[in-house]
Amino acid sequence: MEKHRMIQYALNKNDELVYIDDVPNGNNCECHCTFCKEPLNARNGGSINIHHFAHLSGTDCKNAFERTVHLLAKQIIVEEQRIPLFDNNDQPIKIENIEIEKDLGDIRPDLLVTFEGHPIAIEIYVTHAIDDTKYNKIANHKLTTIEINLSSLMKTSKEDIKKALYDKNNTVLIYDYGIMQGYINQKIEIIRRQGTPKQFDNYTFPMCPMKNKSVNIQTCRKCTFSFINEDAKMLYCIGNLNGNIPDWFIRANVHENRFMSLFESCNLMNDFTDGRLFRIHPELRRNKPQKRS
């Protein structure tokens, strides 16, 4: 349990989540920690301090708060049958199917739901946000994914968690294949418009502005600065803009060792082009998140 983060839910002897005020006070509540399974003391007899559970050993379980929030958040979504993507009436959308921690091989989303026949992964962020490694796995699955940021919660009351779950400012659209393809196409368009056109015949370029040496076409195919039109035997290179190209453009969705959401990427793309090329997708406008902490 982290300092000042009170645990108000625990597991009873039947491994069911129970609220602090619904169990007997003291050591005989027959409850245990959601993470380490250690017996808990129910401190619900006072009128000054917030009612909460404490470990009998007197030690703090650093993962108890995160685990409890995860369990409750998933339980609430299962009960509500709604996720915090919002319809045209600004209401959370109803989902058709829910699977908890479904094993997809290299990833196991907190929840995998179905909306209009399409799978959507739900990730609950309490202490660990999605990073670039997990993002790459999500992208490989072409899995639409949203992350719900509950990192600011200080209590585990069901009411607090539900309120935070359905606060649209806490929802970030992490990945969507259709939107990502549009994003990539915009990158290609920027390279075409701002790049230096080069005709190739022998598949070798005498001087690469990034490497300062001759390179072959295979090197250019792997380069994020270039776009190749094979049919026209034409290459467009923006290496000449080196120094004016932001890091996020080069490294896709990784920026300063911090994962970047689609919303942030699209906004930066819009700034980079002065709004001439990229238009934010309506889904991103409806679910505009606050900056990730």
Q: In words, what does this structure look like?
A:
The chain has 293 residues and is α+β, with helices and mostly antiparallel strands. The chain folds into 3 domains: 9-62, no CATH class; 67-176, Trna Endonuclease, Chain: A, domain 1 (3-Layer(aba) Sandwich), CATH 3.40.1350; 179-284, no CATH class. The chain contains 8 helices and 18 strands. The strands form 7 sheets. The chain has a 5-stranded mixed sheet with strand order 7-8-9-10-11. A 3-stranded antiparallel sheet has the order 12-16-15, covered by helices on one side. The protein has a two-stranded antiparallel ribbon with strand order 1-2. Residues 252-258 and 284-293 have low confidence and may be disordered.
Quick structural overview:
The chain is an alpha+beta fold and 293 residues long. The protein contains eight helices and 18 strands. The strands form seven sheets. The chain has a five-stranded mixed beta sheet. A three-stranded antiparallel beta sheet has the order 12-16-15, with helices on one face. The chain has a two-stranded antiparallel ribbon with strand order 1-2.
Instruction: Give the uncertain stretches in residue-range form.
Output: 252-258, 284-293
Roughly what percent helix? 25-40%
What's the count of strands?
A: 18
What is the CATH architecture assignment of the largest domain? 3-Layer(aba) Sandwich
The CATH topology name of the largest domain reads Trna Endonuclease, Chain: A, domain 1
Radius of gyration over all CA atoms, rounded: 25 Å
Number of helices: 8
CATH class of the largest domain: Alpha Beta
Order of the strands making up the biggest sheet: 7-8-9-10-11
Distance between the first and last residues' Cα: 21 Å
Total number of domains: 3
Strand content: 25-35%
Order of helices and strands: EEEEHEEEEEHEHEHEEEHEEHEEHH
Structural class: alpha+beta
**Describe the biggest sheet?**
5 strands, mixed
Mean pLDDT: 81
- Shape label: elongated
